[in-house]
Amino acid sequence: MLIRFHVSNFLSFKDEIELSMVPGKSRGEETQILETECDSVTSLLRAAIIYGANASGKSNLVKAMQFAQRIILNGTKAKEAISVSRFKLDSKFRELPSKFEFEFISSDRCYIYGFELDTHRIHEEWLYEIRKTTEKMLFERSTDSSDKTVVEFGKLNISNKKRRDFLDFVAMSTRPNQLFLTESAERNVVEFEGIDHWFREKLEFIFPDTKCIGLAGVGTSDEMSSDLVEHLNNLGTGICGFRLVEVDPEDTFPREMLDDFHRKIENRDTLISVVASSNDTRYLLEYRNGKFQARKLMFRHQMADSKEEALFSMDEESDGTRRIMDLLPFLAGMPSSDKVYVIDEIDRSLHPLLSYQLLKLFLSNVSSQSQLISTTHEINLLDQKLLRRDEIWFVEKDNNGASHVYSLEEYAPRRDKNIERGYLMGRYGAIPVFGDITFEEPGHE
């Protein structure tokens, strides 16, 4: 679970901003509070919904989190420049490093992990474990202007001298443009594998063009298919079921794809993969006993004039239905998980009432330990019957082009206050400011 995220000197963020999932003082839906096993942070919010005008920096907040994840998981090549985009509207910040910091819970322990970097090197990097009254340093890394990297370790409870020597070797081998955490994961350093696991498995990004390719797997699971169909039916899509229809893999996929799939098999007898085509159709591609088998995911619709059903492929469904199907597996918790979903534009291609129902579905799933962070323009969600005050966030740019992040909790509106109306009136900021966009009649000065 995410506790807090900080970023500075990245894209439109100049000074350090904070997005916090720690509940504020507001009284709201207690079911939207996640209880933790961590002594230092006992409860967290289930959601953070972010508003702001176009070009205010909402999407930049998502990009900042994803950039940090990508650097952690993918690393950099030797002598490769780090593709960080610093704040450009203040000349002093062009020379300063960008900072990223995550505070999160992994395996019931609270951690702070962060780093500062520019295009050439990782200036600083740190990992702490947060305890009830103290912070335990696990490692601190620094790289000076001559590219000398030094890693100082805290008390890691390593009694084996060979393990400690190996850890020192990995530290000495870390390149100036590579994170020590990334180098540790690549060299199988077990002491920090839980941190890498959180960024790899628990933090997931969903953009407007993200496809849930795993959706083709619903045809192989009666329970998942039944749950998904029930949700799709309640949301008015007209879909009453799924079917996997066999197709000829040789006619369906390029030869290069099948050859590449074949190379990945190695010595295994069976391999199953889900594939999304260029027209958004989903396939289940299998290799069994030396042969390829492919099945196409189709959607069942009840015909109006008979008891028969018609089959629709994904590209025959509406944009809104496709968006629902790409979001539903995450928001409905199928399968149940404890992830942090970061969605850019949750309302894309959706009717306002659908956006409301999808968010309500996520928040009502009390069996899930997942969190949702999403940007939106959908003012229909500004409802204190749906969201707590501390779950509503705003991003606004100042006159110098720098983005600032703040919560509705700072305004402490009453529970009976119309938040949507107040937002449109500019009471909370983060709305567009227009100039004169009327046209003058020809001949008028």
Please name the defining characteristics of this protein:
445 residues, Rossmann fold, 10 helices, 20 strands, alpha+beta, 7-stranded antiparallel sheet
Quick overview:
The chain is an alpha+beta fold and 445 residues long. Helices cover 24% and strands 29% of the residues. The chain has 2 domains: 1-208 and 344-433, Rossmann fold (3-Layer(aba) Sandwich); 213-332, no CATH class.
Write the layout of secondary structure elements.
Elements (H helix, E strand, L loop, with lengths): L1 E7 L8 E4 L12 E3 L7 E3 L1 E5 L6 H17 L23 E9 L2 E9 L4 E9 L4 E9 L5 E5 L7 H13 L6 H7 L6 H10 E4 L15 H13 L4 E9 L1 H4 L2 H11 L4 E7 L5 E7 L2 E12 L6 E5 L5 H13 L8 E4 L8 H13 L6 E5 L16 E6 L5 E5 L11 H6 L21
Parallel strand pairs: 5-18, 5-19, 11-17, 17-18
Antiparallel strand pairs: 1-2, 1-6, 3-4, 6-7, 7-8, 8-9, 9-10, 12-15, 13-14, 14-15, 15-16, 19-20
Distance between the termini: 60 Å
Strand line-up across the major sheet: 2-1-6-7-8-9-10
For the record, the CATH architecture of the largest domain stands as 3-Layer(aba) Sandwich
> Major β-sheet, in short?
7 strands, antiparallel
Number of helices: 10
Description of the structure:
This protein is α+β, with helices and mostly antiparallel strands. It folds into 2 domains: 1-208 and 344-433, Rossmann fold (3-Layer(aba) Sandwich); 213-332, no CATH class. Helix content is 24%, strand content 29%. The strands form 4 sheets. It has a 7-stranded antiparallel sheet with strand order 2-1-6-7-8-9-10. A 6-stranded mixed sheet has the order 11-17-18-5-19-20, sandwiched between helices. Strands 12, 13, 14, 15 and 16 form a 5-stranded antiparallel sheet that branches. The longest helix has 17 residues, at 58-74. The protein is globular. The relative contact order is 0.16. The model has no long low-confidence stretch (mean pLDDT 87).
